[in-house]
What we know:
CATH class of the largest domain: Alpha Beta
Structural class: alpha+beta
Shape: elongated
Number of domains: 2
Number of helices: 10
Radius of gyration: 23 Å
Distance between the termini: 47 Å
Strand content: 15-25%
Order of helices and strands: HEHEEHEHEHEHHHEEEEEEHHEEEEEEE
Helix content: 25-40%
Oligomer: single chain
CATH superfamily of the largest domain: Creatinase/methionine aminopeptidase superfamily
Strand order of the largest sheet: 4-3-2-1-5-6
CATH topology of the largest domain: Creatine Amidinohydrolase
Largest sheet: 6 strands, mixed
Amino acid sequence: xxxxxxxxxxxxxxxxxxxxxxxxxxxxxxxxxxxxxxxxxxxxxxxxxxxxxxxxxxxxxxxxxxxxxxxxxxxxxxxxxxxxxxxxxxxxxxxxxxxxxxxxxxxxxxxxxxxxxxxxxxxxxxxxxxxxxxxxxxxxxxxxxxxxxxxxxxxxxxxxxxxxxxxxxxxxxxxxxxxxxxxxxxxxxxxxxxxxxxxxxxxxxxxxxxxxxxxxxxxxxxxxxxxxxxxxxxxxxxxxxxxxxxxxxxxxxxxxxxxxxxxxxxxxxxxxxxxxxxxxxxxxxxxxxxxxxxxxxxxxxxxxxxxxxxxxxxxxxxxxxxxxxxxxxxxxxxxxxxxxxxxxxxxxxxxxxxxxxxxxxxxxxxxxxx
Length: 370
């Protein structure tokens, strides 16, 4: 298999030179893996398993004893530096050895405390010539377009998720609780071979379905419910994300009505996706269908998001974060309508932008047929 990390590093260095940076500190776990192959995640934001320092012609991975063995095997293209009692001493050494004066950092992720430590270390070494530049999304923009290996992993994650989802769907019935369904999803995904769910399963039955990110409760499914099921798996570090809405045998006509509207909006958006279209334009196509049907205020979130190493990543569809779509971007298409006190409907597919349109990575299954 072709090593992708050298090509990705070259792309980062091109961006660094455009910004007149001679160093770049990488703290986002997904970006760390994307550029090095180092797979360790972070337990929490304030407890990192490591950092990359990328210079103009050298790169280092800074970590501690707990990850030394993995790092040496997973990131052989990086100089490995182990810190024992804080990273400041190692930072100073690598900044000095790499000749770094103007350093970019991931401001959307690095904590303020660590930012101050980085700035103090660089300025202590370089004086007034030391400059720390806050960046937002440098690597994430590169991650938007997937290579063939990434696409294969995404397809595998989708396939695993759908295999588990089909069993859950077949067993879903009045009388089971939201928590039972959520556990069946999570256990099934683990047992099928995934490392983890890509996010805690969302199971919202009846009025709980009006909560877009409903947390499963002890509420039991009833025959007149709609049940929103939003699930995903992480397999070989890549994520899947899908949503279907189960319609009970005695669900009210209003629920069936909004289901048809949501499905129409989803299909129209998928039909519109192609290279060179602005993503916000796709959002508006789906949103206008829901608006004309009289439910515009009940669709309060974006049409979807990118999926890859993170279950939510660039590109987006919003006015402020829209992008011109390119071939091999992978996004979700997930319109929804939420009616407090009654319930909600959301339908979500993952799609790949092709040379002339889009390919659904999700199966055309588990939709209401009327």
